[in-house]
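Lay summary

Proteins are chains of building blocks that fold into shapes. Our project writes down both the chain and a compact code for its shape. Here are two examples, one after the other.
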Amino acid sequence: MENPQLYKPPQSTISNCCTVHLVYQRMASSNSDISVDVGSLLKGGPAGKEDGVGESGASNGGQPPNSSSHDPWLSSIMENGGLEEKSKSQHPKIQHVSAMLRNVESNKKCYDPFVVSIGPYHHGKPELAFMESRKMAMARQHVTDSKVAIQTLYDNVVAVAEEARKCYIEGSTDKWDDRQFAQMMFLDGCFVLRFICCSLDKETGIKSHNIAFVRRDLFLLENQLPFLVLEALMLPDKNKWLKDTNLFVENTRARSPHHQEGGWLDGIMKSFFNRDRKDRSKETKQQQQPVHLLGILHGQLIDQSVPDPLSMSEWSSYRSAIELKAAGIHFKPSKTSRCMDVSFEPAMSFGTLRLPPIMVDDSTKSMFLNLVAYESCPDAPDDFGITSYLCFMDVLIDHAEDVKELRSNGILLNFLGSDKEVANLFNEIARDLVPNPRVYAKVIGEIERHYNNKAKIWIAEWLHTHFSTPWTFLAFLGAIFALALSCFQTYLDAYGDKKPN
């Protein structure tokens, strides 16, 4: 990002490189040991399909491509072809962060909890023992406030414990028997719901310096609880609990003063009433069963719109916010805080780039990196929306001056420190990330068309040079006034003394 002018590769090369990298991301996150023929990916066909090879009957003695082979290993490939579809139909698993992301030295601490463990992956760590001792007290308060018998709540958790165990990576929960695992799910679920309730009431019973850390820890990929466990504890009023959970997740991010979105529940209602009756039950059921809190946060930040598969984004060069401002492009906050709510509004000689407002604090880096880790999971949505958003912001932010420009226009709410720290944060987060080239294709194309219009650029640069500050504008008015007086004086000297005939 440091070089303002980059080589512009062919469109097909960009698409193919992104495809290969996205495949590699998915394979790395699932610890898969599958070899991929990169050449076949770049050609868009199966491996070895060249000059007729791979066609039915061309190189296998006339046998159809799905015929059995004498090699047991080759036969197993064809027989197990449906395993991927079967795994997708099951509950999405709560994955580990991929080694590719964890190996970035500056980001290693962003994936581990600071004060509380939720679920089995970090359970029992000595540094988390203090908050572990608080879970029984939080569970007691949750049971008391719900006015439901503790046995009833526990039985509800036991009923879903087996399904909840399947949400974690196979083998990661083997050291807990059914009773121990159900107890862990019960205490962790009560802790999460009690913290959500108390956070909205501003009374958590936890010291203030730990509240921010607990909130941060609840949105780590490896620190998630299956949402079905939380649902089992949402008594007596499940609908109220769902609304409170939605509001709690919303409060973890900044919202625009013109906030119009309703979050996860409103998304469900819109999809319910705007879809055909035939598709309502299937899609609503999928949306009403979020995977975990981090999945809800991802759903609030990313809408479900599908980008045009034929459109591709292509920057001819990287341009920071300051460079775009000099070219006549102004910045304004979007009406929602969804990462996909990015638009460009062209005008006669100017343009307006609308970006979602974002609050930047000590937990921002951890939150975005865990969302990126979630998107790289095999069972996660394929949009790579958060990854693409971070790459887009990384293009706009090079230096502290770029942060200042976005901050002064209400897009970045800086609670982290200096503008330079914010710039460094975005540059570190986006390191080694590859965006979905279709996500912001329309916006990038409109910016490129504006930037390639030489007349607009000339006018914008002239106005930026001479009217960037009030003092230059006043100086320009003074010069115009002085020129007018000079012309008027010249006219008087030439014609003022002459008498009419």
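And here is the second example, written the same way.
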Amino acid sequence: MAAAADESKPPIGNDDNDGTYWMERVALELQPVARTMDPKMTFNTPEIVSAFHAMLCTPGPAGPGVVMKEVEFGTYFIPICPGAESSCAKPTATSAVLWIHGGGRIMGSSNGASIVVFCSKLVNLLGVPVFSVDHRYTFPEALDDVCKAYHWLLDDLESAKAGRDIPSEVRIAVGGESAGAGLSAELCQRVLDESNGVAPVCQILINPMLDDRTCVDDSLSKLPPHLVWNNKSNLYAWSSYLGQNHKPGDETLPAYASASRREDLANLPPAYVQVGSIDLFRDECEVYAQRLKGHGVKTEFVEIDGAFHGHMVIANDEEPILKAWERIGAFGKKYLSD
């Protein structure tokens, strides 16, 4: 399910991993960032994963107007009240975002430098707290962790509302980037089935890792390895995540192990699905978005031309990224604002 090759330029073979094939397809505005990346990087050994995990866990400071608070299950990013000398959530806030970090389902943390920058932007964009979640790196433990975090956030918002004359209902948007977006989709599925609390008002899925079957797709051998996250990394990650009892591509997997395996997508929260045109996950994202629409779920599918995997985290103020932030903001505010 990889992004399709340009027919005018036949694939140059799986052994060519100098990045030329995909680099030629990167959007002009994103090429300076793309040139800083190692096209040969593959996350397929414990040593490489461990080293990169340590880097992703290196903490960073919150952005302007935002403070971080370490809490159970993760890190809370809280907007500073206008005119306040110390941090505080808006007293009438009944909305928040639960955000799940990327890292192939096998790396990352709730307060690493890159996720801190991202969540700080999200707070300032939407004007609500963002709860960044930590989780374990195997199934079903990872999903269990984010489910507990979701209900912790729900209880926290309900407690803040208790005893106050606040007409607004509690609203939680669930979202994530890459692996975190895949877990977000699976969280929405599980919350829907369990029906034991307030459902998310929407899901924000940024280049989501949705389908284990991508990593065993033989057609990918016709394409050079994708930038940032290639299919060797994908196979290693899915295999590690699913564990010894299940393999990627198995005829069946347990419920919620891989979001795209679910047949009935009806009644899930409205979805924003964004992916780059040269991302390994491009096709699986479009398929999931179209299936959501087919099951009556309000869905916005956004394909960023010439964008690679992780573009929202790796890039910064380039025009395609700024436009994407605008779309994310408009979508989120539609469901989180009064």
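What can we say about the second shape? The chain has a mean pLDDT of 90.
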